[in-house]
Amino acid sequence: MARVLLRNLNKHYETFHAVKDVDLEIQDREFVVLVGPSGCGKTTTLRMIAGLEAITSGEILIGDTVVNEMPPMDRDIAMVFQNYALYPHMSVRDNMAFGLKMRKFERAEIDRRVKIASDILGIEALLHRKPRQLSGGQRQRVALGRAIVRNPQVFLFDEPLSNLDAKLRVQMRVELKKLHERLGTTAVYVTHDQVEAMTLGDRVVVMKDGWVQQVGDPLELYNNPANKFVAGFIGSPGMNFAAVTIERDGDALWAANPGMRVRVPDAIVTRLGPHSGRAATLGIRPEDLHIAGPADDAGHCFDAHVEVVERLGSEILLDVSVGPSSMVASVPPTVRTKMHETIRLALDPERLHFFDAETEAAI
Amino acid sequence: MATMQAGSGAPRPRTRLLEDERWLAFFLLMPTLILLGLFIAYPFAKGILLSVTNTRVGVPGDYVGLAIFEKIWNDGIFREAAWNTILYTAVTTVFKLALGLWLALLLNRHFRGKAFIRAFILLPFIIPTVLSTFAWKWMFDPTFSVLNWMLREIGVIDQRINWLGDPDLAMGCIIAVNVWRGVPFFAITLLAGLQTISPELHEAAAIDGANARQRFIHVTWPLLLPVTMVVVLFSVIQTFADFQLVYVLTEGGPANATHLFATYAYQIGVRTGLLSEGAAISLAMFPVLFLVVIFQLLYIRRVETR
Questions:
Q1: Which of A81, A91, A154, A157 to mutate to test binding with chain B, by most B CBs within 10 Å of its CB?
Q2: CATH number of the domain at B72-304, please?
Q3: What is the pTM of this model?
């Protein structure tokens, strides 16, 4: 077990700056997820921690040791790869034992550890098989087993579930979480799937274009996104955005565009004050919209034209247009509405977000 | 079905014939069958027929049973040719594999001009064997040998070496030229094999604590083995039946020291006109090649079903 420290980490390829000034402290026993779209630098960061990629500048510490120049084998880490990377010519047992054999463990100790790991993962019956005789989920377990037997300081996961079908992915996600609970090994996990990030991570690091956008626990990212990118990336379906102008009317502030005019709640009037008269982006999550009722303040309601009705069973997603902008509203399955109707929606003022139109930072 | 036929009209007879898969298969296989029959099966059968007679050029000959085989079995030059063929095949294959693997591992790395070098490597393999072998013959020429000139310039020798005139040296020379010619095939094929090995496996092994040597032994080599086996077996078949290289360089000489099965068969059968003996010598290769081919087929099947 150990903490992992990234200090001012940078990676340049010949013409491409892949990872930019990443600072991150991963606590002992913590499960940290790096998430972001393709090319955001998350996998490169992980590979630098593993020692598979050279560091251009900055420092990586595992425990209290700077590992910048240390080869992967000496870093006391184990990695689970996206394509499992099982040795195809070795049995499951040999795959799991390989790392221990290379480290000259006693035969009995190897057997003991393989036994424990295969018990945990429920793959005792597969030990004599070759990887090609296994299903995707079983291969994934073997890859996990290979990491577990080593009992390393840090687990590194590189999109380990992305090759599984949707149902199995959900199942393995839960098992991974339990496994981490049980072993308590520090884990760094890379994924492009925000649901995976939210469900697995003690903390989630959102990256884009090589920059860290925000670090926080899942609810923090959901409730207080640092910028428009994080706001749009976290949550499914994504947050609705509308370009608005902030208008002052006496003590009150209004966010307005040709389709809506929303009163800014008192709690953030002070913060938003300096932006009056300027353009901004309003953000509201689909689940924070509902069909307007008598209790709703007129200043938080607006008309919406229904374009598509997606009935998902547990909820209905309404794709609507509000003036110039498109929005999605998540409403209960009991709501009766049809395409091309005009309905009145209300938003939860406590859940409103505003972003600077230029910097896209949260206001 | 009935309505469809009514609409489009009955298909023409030839089209209907081709829609029958048995006929289609027959038509498609026909050209290959004719070629194989004409150039492989017929000569092979003819060879067997010749070898059990005492036919020579201009003399039709009679059936003599296995007398010809007995005769060549007791022929000292035949025995020498057999030994030469085995030695030639074994030594060249070992060198071709070792050098080819080494080259493949080098070429599998990233470096500037990789594509160019990879293409360049193939040159000995692309040039017609007879042409490149003639160039080698000049380099081994007793008078004009560039090798002798170089060795003398750097002071290793003070007397000309008669490369192809000395029995042992001549054998070494044909082995060297065969290796030179065969390495590219090994290198490129093994390189292709190396590139099918996922880099993730090497990374996983590196993290698992294997150093470069251990990664080669435990990951690269076992995964490359199927390709290696196929290349080696192909090469063994070709080298065992080699003809043109030796024919151009030494014609089996000096004093029959470099005869292989093929060159000796040609010498006896065509040059001397003892057709049945030539055929028998050629057929002597058959059991060995047959075993190699069987082994190869079995191995490929095992790998495929693995």
A1: A81
A2: 1.10.3720.10
A3: 0.80
